[in-house]
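Tutorial handout. Part one gives the primary structure; part two gives the three-dimensional structure as C-alpha cells.
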Amino acid sequence: MSMELQIPLLWVTVLAPPLLAILFKLLTLEHRNTRLLSYLTAFILLIPAFISVYYLGIKRVSFVKDPIVLNLTDYGIGYFMLVIDGVSLPIVLGISIVTALVSVYSIKYMEHRIDELRRERVEAPGIYAYYILYNAFSSSMLGMAYSTNLIEFFIFLEISLITSFALIAYYGYGDRLRIALMYFVWTHIGGALFLVGILFYGVNTGGFDIIGMDLSYNRVYADLDLRGLAILAPISILLGLMIKMAIIGVHMWLPYAHAEAPTPVSALLSPNLIGIAGYAIARFSIILFPEFMVSIKSILVILSFATIIYGGFVALRQNDFKRFLAYSSISQMGYILLGVSTLTYFGVAGAMIHYLSHAIGKAVLFMISGVFITEVRGLRDMNLMGGLARVYPAMASLALIGFMHLSGIPPTVGLWGELLILIGLVQAYNPASKIDLITIAIAVISAFIITAVYSFIAMRRIFFGRVRVTGVFENIDQFKVTILILGVSGVVFFLMIGLIILPLRDAVGYLLEPIIR
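Part two.
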C-alpha cells in the first residue's frame, strides 16, 4: 500500500529552507531574527521525520510519495519524484533530526566563529549567508534520500558538494582554502565517476529511474550486458560512491575536511553526508547490478573490515578531538559497507540502522567538541583536556551516550544496527567449518574491540583524570539543549525500533529479491 501526500510537503522540505534563508537575507532583517530563522528552518527540516514515522512506521504504508512529479521522459531521463520507503526511512530520520537540531545549535557557534574570523581580519560572509548555504546543504541531503532517479540523485549530490565546499572555505579553520579545495577535488572525482557510470547505464537501458511511476523497483539490469567495456558502469558507480564514503584507500581527504570544517558543518558531513553513499550502494548498485555485487561480495567485506580497523587504529593516535572524530567516521563507514556487502536482509537493514545510529552519536560528539571550542578558548587538544566531567557533567553524560551509539551499546539504537549486521554476516557466509567460523569471529571481535577501545579511551582522556581547565563552568542553554534532545532521540529509537525495522524489513526484502530467490 502506498500513500500520496495531498500537499507537496517533501518538495517543501527541499525548497523552503534555502528560500527562507534567502528571504531573510534580502529583507535585511535585524540580527536578532537569526534565532527566528533557525527555528523556522528546524521546523521545516523536522517535517520528514514526522511524515516517515507516521506513515511508514505507524500506518505501515510501503511508500510515501509527493504529489508533484517532473516528467522528463521526452529527454530520456525519466521521472523526478520524491519518495520515502522503508529503505530510506532511517536515512531520512537521521538527516531530518540532525539538520534540524544543528540549525538551532549553529546560532551561538557561528556568531562566535564569525567574530573570531573578523578578529583575524578575515572578511567572512555573515550569519545569513551561512544559513543560505547550510539550509541548501541540509535540503540537498534530504533530496538524495528522497530520489527515485539516478540523475535526480546526482543533482542533489552536486548541490551538497558545492554548498559544503563553500561552508568549509568561508568558515573553516587552519588552511581552510586549501583543505576546501582538496575536499572538492576528491569528492568531485567520486561524483564524476558516479556520473560516468550512471550515464553509461542510462543510455544503454533507456532510462535512469530506480522506482517507477507505479512505485515499484525498475529491474532493467538484464538489458545491460556487463561483458567488455560495460563492466565499467557498475565499477565506476561503486568506486565513485566508495570515494564519497571514504573507504580505506580513498579516504585521505576526509580527516582534513571534517576536522577543519566549522563544527556545525562537521556534524553534518561526518555522520550524514558520507553515509548517504552507503545508502546509495544499497539503493542503486544492488538493484541495477545484483550479479556484479554478488561476484565482488567477499572483496567488499574485506575492505569493510580493513576500513573499520584502520580507521580505529589511526583514531587512537589522534590528539585533536575533531580529527579523532573524523577518523572514527572512517571506521564507522566500514560497518555500513559491511552490512550492505553481505547482500542479506539482516545485513542491509543493519547498515541502514547503523546510518541512523552514527548520525545521532557522531553529531552529538561533534557538537560537544563545538561547546569546548566556543567556551574553553578554542580547546581541541585532548592532551589539554581531562577532568571535564567535573566542569561539564551534562556534556560528559551526553558524550557517553554518543560513544555508546558508536560502540553499539544499549540503550542506544546502535545496538540494533551492529546486531543485524553481525547476523547478516553469519547468514552470508554460513560458516560450516571451524576455520571459517574462527576467521569470521576474529574479524568481528577485532572490529568491535577497536571501536570500543578508541571510544572509551577518548572518553577517559577528555572527561576523567586531573582537571586541567580552570575558569569555566557549564551553563545549560539552548546551545546544549539541542545536544541533549539529539542524544535522547537515539535512546527513543532504541525503545521504538519496531517503527523502523518493520517497514525496513519489507523494503529490503524486495530490494534483494533477485539475489535471494
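Part three, for discussion. The beta strands are 2-4, 63-65, 70-72, 78-80, 83-85. The chain has a mean pLDDT of 91.
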